[in-house]
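New here. Invent one.

***
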Amino acid sequence: MRKTLSVLSLAATIFAATPQVGQMAPDFTLPSQDGSKVSLHDYKGKWVVLYFYPKDGTSGCTLEAHNFQRDLAKYQQDNAEIVGVSVDSADSHKDFCAKQGLHFKLLADTDKKVSQDYDSFHTLLRFSARNTFLISPDGKIAKIWIGVSPSNHSEEVLAALSTLKK
């Protein structure tokens, strides 16, 4: 019986369904680079760009983070917060933010649960997939991007945010 439950649990993790547009975004609480605990419900009343990325310091992840940082004032004008998630540690995020001049929250999903809840974890590769969820001020998923290109992703998100706010 115990082996059957383990197999079913593994299957549920591997074949987890991506949260869908219109559904409530799964809530979570994770540590950030500054040591504080951050919960999705802390952002109620704001738009949230919840982006998952593979690894601090890699070229694509650095480019994506720089573009979000470059556009941070535009997001703030639209009542939106940027929140990045990877399976790296909070200390890794702290170093990455300091080195790259990032001023938004990066969350440490070291147990991989949040990445799995958002169907954004590569089981075989052991890191978060490059997916983004735009969450509305009422906590519902408004738009999803799967397997994004880091070079122009911030512009895509800003355009969608502009359209959805109307």
Q: What stands out?
A: The CA atoms of residues 143 and 160 lie 8 Å apart. The first strand starts at residue 29 and ends at 31. The chain has six helices and nine strands. The mean pLDDT is 89.
